[in-house]
Amino acid sequence: MLPHFERAVIALAETTVHRRLAHAAGQRDPSAAVARFLLDVQARMPDYLRLPFRLLTLAFDAAPLPLTGRCFHRLSPERRLQCVDAWKGSRIEARRRLMEFYESLAVFSLYSNLYGQDYAPAAVAAQDQDQAKGAGDAALA
């Protein structure tokens, strides 16, 4: 069983992916890779930042308890989006910055993951070289 912190981070990753992508049937869900990235970033933080981020994340996970009777990670995707939006629009700066932190890193991870699958740099570079070679040969003729 995962601790609440990890569950909250996984739920934040799923929420960000859900907001950014409309999944087609059969398409691989990148939420797990995004969650792993977020957990790795948090684990690599300096000691003086790791604890405050962990505590704020746990506070975020517990925030819906009084209203819904459930932690953030146990809410439906629609309710999760509402919670994230509420913290993003909060007057308390620490709440807004926590959401910016997770969302910006999640989006970075998401699109890095997607472009790594959809974009083959070696194939594009080879195609560009072929086109340049063809243009050079045409100029010599």
How do the helices and strands line up, and which of them pair or pack?
Blueprint: H1 4-20, H2 31-43, H3 47-62, H4 65-68, H5 77-88, H6 93-118, H7 121-140
Helix pairs in contact: 1-2, 1-3, 1-5, 1-6, 2-6
Task: Give a brief description.
The protein is mostly helical and about 140 residues long.
Explain the overall architecture.
This protein has 141 residues and is mainly α. The protein has one domain. It has seven helices and no strands. Helix 1 crosses helix 5 and helix 1 packs across helix 6. The radius of gyration is 21 Å and the shape is globular. The N and C termini lie far apart (69 Å). 22% of the residues are buried.
Q: What is the terminal-to-terminal distance? A: 69 Å
Structure annotation, total helices:
7
**How many domains in all?**
1
Computed structural class: mainly alpha
List keywords for this structure.
141 residues
